[in-house]
Write a structure and sequence with these properties.
- The protein is of the alpha/beta class and 323 residues long.
- It folds into two domains: 175 residues, NAD(P)-binding Rossmann-like Domain (Rossmann fold); 124 residues, N-(1-d-carboxylethyl)-l-norvaline Dehydrogenase, domain 2 (Orthogonal Bundle).
- Helix content is 52%, strand content 11%.
- It has an eight-stranded mixed β-sheet with strand order 3-2-1-4-5-6-7-8, with helices on both faces.
- Helix 1 crosses helix 2 and helix 10 packs across helix 11.
């Protein structure tokens, strides 16, 4: 039987409202708290507008009204946490603020509740390392908006209990998200480090007069972004060269190393690293299945292209950005 226990969301900004949609949409009662009561009214208005859009696109499993009715607001943190099995901190990206919130969560939440931080970069060992109940604390970093980008990074500290990670993964997965557990803490986690690497290079290309902002966005929107919406960077490299990712590294590794060195970076792919990446790819996709996977990739891109050609909002990148 599906768990429909209460979920507490601390902070009624865009991420908090997004999480409210995720969990209310999967049947949980959600209690939304914010230190500023006016933001709660704003959040409910935003929630209704997002639900109306989701309903118009046929993306709700229940009615707009039924889902909205599962979300209640409260000016009391203690009331928000009552019986909640998961509390998600969505406070501003300020360490002192997050530490104060977690101290309150540890004091007020039920003893077996999972306490998660939706921080974009701050490790939980810094936020909750001094708490008595730190074993039930971890980072749960979403994409924005979480109701449309279902990945959730679970980042434990060395002190986070294995049961906490498992419970968090179960709750997010049951709500339709895809939990990804990081093996160790690192600032920015995976999502923002990958995003940051692209942004750093994009800024550098503008700075050096190589391309305009719009040109770079077009390359991403019409090229890399489309491909990455189907497969990630490792699978892209694996499928781009017959023979797989180790063949790709032999063909392209030196060129990528020269690009990095020209910008003062040292990120050459040594043989041991390529062998490890190749071994992980072959565990997912044996080389004898490579041809049919490339056909699948192309058909998936065809399906996306068909959707773009028949959906006004997706034509030319966006209806608000005509070409």
């Amino acid at each position: 039987m599906a768990d429909r226990s209460p979920i507490a969301i601390i902070g009624a900004g865009s991420i908090g409202t997004g999480f409210a949609l995720v969990f209310a949409g999967s049947g949980h009662p959600v209690r939304l708290y914010d230190i500023a009561p006016a933001r709660l009214d704003t959040a409910i208005g935003k929630l209704h507008r997002r639900l109306a859009d989701l309903e118009a696109f046929g993306l709700l499993e229940a009615s707009h009204e039924a889902i909205a009715a599962r979300v209640t607001t409260t000016p009391s943190l203690e009331a928000a946490l009552a019986d909640a099995v998961l509390a998600i901190e969505c406070a501003p990206e300020d360490l002192a603020t997050k530490q104060a919130v977690f101290a309150d969560l540890d004091r007020l939440a039920r003893s077996d509740a999972v306490l998660a931080s939706a921080t974009s970069a701050i490790p939980i060992s810094v936020t909750a390392g001094s708490l008595a109940g730190r074993a039930r604390c971890l980072v749960a970093h979403p994409g924005n908006p979480p109701y449309l980008l279902p990945v959730i990074e679970l980042v434990p500290a060395p002190f986070t209990a294995a049961a906490t990670i498992a419970r968090a993964a179960d709750l997010f997965a049951a709500a339709g998200m895809q939990p990804v557990r990081l093996e160790r803490e690192i600032e920015g986690f995976v999502f923002n480090r990958l995003q940051g690497a692209v942004l750093r290079e994009a800024y550098r290309l503008v700075r050096d007069g190589v391309a305009s902002v719009d040109a770079i966005d077009t390359v991403m929107r019409a090229g890399l972004g489309r491909r990455w919406s189907v497969i990630g960077p490792f699978e892209t490299a694996d499928l781009n060269v017959e023979g797989g990712i180790d063949a790709h590294a032999r063909r392209m590794g030196a060129a990528y190393a020269r690009m990095a060195e020209a910008d003062g970076e040292d990120c050459a792919w040594d043989a041991a690293l390529v062998a490890e990446v190749a071994a992980q790819r072959r565990a997912v996709l044996p080389l004898d299945q490579w041809p049919e996977r490339t056909v699948w990739r192309d058909r998936a891109l065809m399906a996306l292209e068909r959707c773009r050609r028949t959906t006004p909002e997706l034509q030319d990148g966006s209806a608000m950005h005509p070409r």
